[in-house]
């Protein structure tokens, strides 16, 4: 049952601002564009904003031209001219994840609705709908559409299925349950093209990424069932890979001998302070979200991340032992619970 306050707040809003997270993935873009299509069906004209431009594999998504980046003159103008009476935040576990698309001193007086599926969500909104049982925020937007009487069809279905496909790695993650498949079926019945979405977002990758994997894989380390590697700015340049989306942590966790994977990616130094983006994955039964949260980030038990200040070497030397320690503790706990239930 959906919170009636959430539904009436959305229904009564005249001018809405919808925002998703920095470095947007398919679920961020899909839930944001999907929310746009849903609200337009309710005869509203929301502003859709992101801090960062979405990666090129999502350029084809319907409504992409309506997305504004926070830096764009159109967004600056909208913020100056429109007193938003509701802000909706999608697929972000904490306020900082909206980056500069959300300015508390400008938007803080409007009610903030949070719609998210991260276990690390900090409940930072006025209305918080957090469902960790959903595999994607797009799944939640599908339930929202149904509660508001909006059919799951056309562009809305296309955008929502994209987020479901990307967050579940095409229905391969362990949280792909009957409800996920039921929503996906409805979206396909509504006209979403599963084969095309999969082809565009999962089956293809730029050659520069394969070159990067070629540079990075020879230096992968595996110790205490934690598999990890580093990616430097010079490797990104040598490979000609512009995006910092490397999909390497998902690749590394496929190793049979590992329970946890980590990729440490050197951030471009804009302000002279070295920092590293960390991406973690875990096999079913292991949890990397708590470590990411401890380090100032967040995510899900099997997939999480954070940004830590320091050089690549410093951050890896600090974080890998934390992962090994957590993995050992979780393995012992798992064995105990298996014995207890035997
Ligand atoms: P990825 O490894 O694909 O970048 O991110 C995996 C998951 O971790 C995603 O659900 C993403 O939302 C979350 N995540 C990644 N980096 C951060 C971060 O810096 N802060 C928070 N709160 N979550 C993050
Ligand atoms: Mn996301
Ligand atoms: Mn998500």
UniProtKB/TrEMBL annotation:
Gene3D superfamilies, sorted: 3.10.310.30, inorganic pyrophosphatase (n-terminal core) (3.90.1640.10)
A Pfam family hit: DHH
Domain DDH: start-end pairs: 17-163
InterPro entries assigned: DDH_dom, DHH_sf, Oligoribo/pAp-PDE_c-di-AMP_PDE
Protein name: Bifunctional oligoribonuclease/PAP phosphatase NrnA
Classification lineage: Bacteria, Bacillati, Chloroflexota, Caldilineae, Caldilineales
């Amino acid at each position: 049952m959906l919170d009636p306050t959430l539904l009436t707040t959305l229904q009564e809003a005249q001018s809405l601002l919808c925002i998703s997270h920095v470095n947007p993935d398919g679920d961020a873009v899909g839930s944001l564009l999907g929310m746009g299509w849903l609200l337009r069906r309710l005869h509203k004209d929301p502003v859709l904003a992101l801090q960062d431009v979405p990666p090129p594999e999502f350029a084809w998504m319907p409504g992409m031209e309506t997305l504004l980046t926070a830096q764009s003159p159109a967004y600056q103008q909208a913020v100056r001219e429109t007193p938003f009476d509701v802000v909706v935040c999608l697929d972000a576990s904490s306020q900082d994840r909206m980056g500069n698309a959300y300015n508390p001193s400008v938007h803080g007086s409007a009610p903030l609705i949070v719609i998210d599926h991260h276990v690390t969500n900090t409940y930072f909104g006025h209305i918080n709908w957090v469902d960790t049982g959903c595999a994607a925020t797009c799944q939640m937007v599908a339930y929202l559409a149904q509660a508001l009487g909006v059919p799951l069809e056309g562009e809305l279905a296309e955008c929502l299925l994209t987020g479901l496909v990307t967050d579940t790695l095409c229905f391969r993650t362990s949280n792909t349950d009957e409800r996920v498949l039921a929503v996906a079926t409805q979206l396909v019945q509504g006209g979403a093209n599963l084969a095309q979405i999969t082809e565009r977002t999962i089956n293809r990758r730029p050659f520069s990424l394969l070159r990067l994997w070629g540079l990075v894989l020879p230096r992968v380390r595996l110790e205490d069932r934690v598999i990890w590697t580093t990616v430097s700015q010079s490797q990104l340049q040598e490979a000609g890979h512009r995006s910092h989306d490397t999909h390497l942590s998902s690749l590394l966790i496929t190793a049979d001998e590992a329970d946890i994977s980590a990729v440490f990616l050197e951030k471009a130094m804009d302000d002279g302070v070295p920092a590293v983006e960390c991406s973690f994955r875990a096999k079913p039964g292991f949890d990397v979200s708590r470590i990411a949260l401890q380090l100032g980030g967040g995510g899900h038990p099997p997939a999480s991340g954070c940004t830590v200040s320091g050089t690549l070497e410093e951050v890896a030397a600090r974080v890998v032992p934390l992962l090994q320690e957590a993995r050992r503790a979780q393995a012992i706990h798992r064995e105990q619970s298996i014995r207890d239930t035997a």
